[in-house]
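Q: Could you fold this chain for me?
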Amino acid sequence: MGSPIDQLGYVVPDIGAAMERWLGQLDVGPFFHLPRPPLGGLRYRGRPTDAAIAVALTYAGDLQVELIQPLDDHPSPYRDFALAQGSGLHHVARFAPDFDAAVAARAAAGRDPVYEGHGLTPDQRFAYFEAGSNDEGTVEEVVELAGVGGFFEHIRSACAAWDGTAPVRVIEL
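A: Sure. Below is the predicted structure, expressed as structure tokens.
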């Protein structure tokens, strides 16, 4: 469980404005914007949910930055975070080449997923784990690399070579 953090995930009320802030004020980009990624099999606190989100991904060096905007009022950790805190750092994520082992290690430590499902492809899974006594409320996500490792590497390469053109690249899946 002590692997490096691969991603910081921020909940934002307006993904367009958030991308502009990161691009203009923090000089981070380009963003790969997924207006409504095809998430599936979502379960939040043990119950099915159809929550929809918009996502934008970029890299700052080797660290992936994810911006997440809840698009509806269906139960999700993003909706609950937005209601409680507005916006800000929601989670840290680790990319797991062996997703089942990573989840099993957390289960062995007494941690069960509070949010889980399929991500950008039907083969790619993710799971969120509450941080326990963490006062900031930041949760941990485990992201399976199956089917998305090449996509993430494409984004990382594009960010490393970015010359300021095409700051937002829309991806429809």
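A (continued): The CA atoms of residues 49 and 75 lie 6 Å apart.
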